[in-house]
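Deviation from plan, reported transparently: zinc ion complex.
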Amino acid sequence: MVLTPIGIVRSPIADRHAMPTFGVPARVEIFPEFAEGLRHLEKHTHVWILAWLHEADRTRLLVTPRGVSDKSEVGLHGVFAVRSPTRPNPIAMTAARIERIEGTCLYLDRLDLVDGTPVVDVKPYFRSRDAIYAARNEQIGRPANRQALLESLLLQAENFHGERCGGLVFGARLVEHFRSTFLDFAEAWGTQVILPEDAGCVIDAVMVLVGATPGRGTLGFHGAPFVRFIRNDRVYNYVLLEPGRRWPSWTALLADEVLALPEEELFRASSTLIRVK
Ligand SMILES: [Zn+2]
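Because the crystal trials were delayed, the predicted structure below was used instead.
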């Protein structure tokens, strides 16, 4: 089996230890002899970039992934159960949005591959078969901190909603607070959610981050300005605050404004035990 690189990553980051988890804007330069293979790529907004991680360790089958604090045998995961570069065939795959195509250069919104990484394939991202909304992941490791969790949630919400607006950031901050404060950072799958019916983009964020849908009976609506999470024997109530503004004017705020506001000005959270029959 012989792999031929078809291009190379051009990124401002050359040191893999300096690469942010979700990557940075970068471009892929396809080599001229493969230029014809790009014809009609503009029919797709997103692509899979497959790359060869030439510096990776190819000898180990067990690793302790990033974020797993237990460094003993317990924290070891098989390389096929994680996305670590360590694996027999160190192929990386990253989905990215195409900002623009110039000649044989693909400008991408984010890529977690360092400068000079050989690219072995480009494929269109198909929402019909690549986006599996029902998929669930048990957390591999704990987020390093609340900020890391928020960044991950913002990315997921934006991938669903299509843009990072004020309402979306508000919804992501709600779920981040819920998971870090009440669930000890665990995933929130299975939580029942009740949302204000006029909350637009907030609804998109919360439903996708919690995996709640009307069809599963886990997503409901009401007319009041609070969000309610119901899980096991507890109700978590979030009163949405309105500093000089009336709900749902949150959705009119810019993403950066909602990111900058202190939590105490966004919502007030409490939890109560409920009787379970
Ligand atoms: Zn929006």
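Residues 146-273 form a domain with the 60s Ribosomal Protein L30; Chain: A; fold (CATH 3.30.1330.130). We consider this an acceptable substitute for the interim report.
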